[in-house]
Amino acid sequence: MSGLTAAVAGVDTGDTAWMLVATALVLMMTPALGLFYAGLVRSKNTLNTFMMCVAAIAVATVTWAAVGYSIAFDGDGSIVGGLGHAFLNGVDFAPREGTTIPELVFFAFQATFCIITVALVSGAVVERMRFGPFLVFAALWSVLVYAVLAHWAFGGGWLQAGGTLDFAGGIPVEMGSGFSALAAALVVGARKDYGRQALLPHNAVYVLLGAGLLWFGWFGFNGGSGFSTGDASVLAFTNTLLCPACTLIVWFALDLLRGRKVTAIGAATAIVVGCVAITPAGGFISPGWAMLLGALAALPSYAIIVWRTRTRVDETLDVLAAHGTAGLFGILFIGFFAELAWNGVSDGLFYGNAAQLGDQALAALAAPAYAFVVTCVLLKAIDVVMPLRSTAKEEALGMDVVQHGEEAYVTGEGAILVVPEDGGPVGAAVADPG
After folding, report:
1. pLDDT tens digit sequence for 405-416
2. Which domain holds residue 418?
3. Do 315 and 409 reside in the same domain of the chain?
4. Residue 285 Ramachandran class (φ > 0 left, ψ -120 to 50 alpha, else beta)
């Protein structure tokens, strides 16, 4: 046991301590997302929506340990990594190359990214996708889409090798989830009542609390992506405070101009959009540019949300607008305003380096296309084996009861209180609505 407790050469204890905290912060973001998503759906789908996020923690952790981490970070293949780290082979206390933290910590930190990205995609299909097929989709998508995009962006793949900058996951997390969500919404189809009646959020307080916890966790998400307590992490941490605050202010103005009221749902969405926009750029732009990024990122995301509600595309929780669009905007923003004086890596077009914008534009084209196409193929293949959609009757009853045999609010409509004659525990039985 003495070998396990001895200091490992090259490992910095301060950096490691920060990364352990950052990993915990990012893991917390997934139940925070569950709370955010649960408040946005109708009450009869609250538990199912939250459970999709909980399921992502289990499924993505296992697939990441089995093969995902290796595909993303083993070797420097152009498209995918190798299988040398499958089932954590060779992942131990020695520092990850290029860092001062144990590779086990690096693995755990990256696992939390995969987890929340899988959970994000669920927002496109809540209230009608069956839970079993979602579990299968989550396992396959985490390997075939997320791990591949992670390799491209920061695992030594072709985008990173070609000069694309992505500090904390604008490519695999944000664009990957956003454009996969669009594909999922198109394949699974719209909810049966979409376009015929208002499908309103049932709890704005859940949404605001979830967004606040997401912002809190994002300090670990972005601040941890410097893998140390050095300048890059400090810059990203500070920019994660500034950028969403500016997005909020502009979103308030847009709400006032459009509807003369500042909405709670809008405020929560703005927080997420600002956090997403700074994710790829956090360690590459100055605080001043981060504030401008936050202000400008509100515009395309707000426009996509307004546009989407006027179409037949039932991308339920606007993952495309909040994550895909804001992530793409952040990726491109780097190409204009990356500043060598702040990041020590590269300037953008504004500072005389037009090539950086070209590198960023390539990523903004390739990653969405890959995520969209592979997600479509994957879901169509799963649907052949096991139907993705619940029936119209099950959808009317609610996914909580149909998929889990429980309700978030047992005194709600459709629940009958059952008191056993033998003095056993009180339960809730759900009446058949039709």
Report:
1. 999 997 644 444
2. 392-430
3. no
4. beta
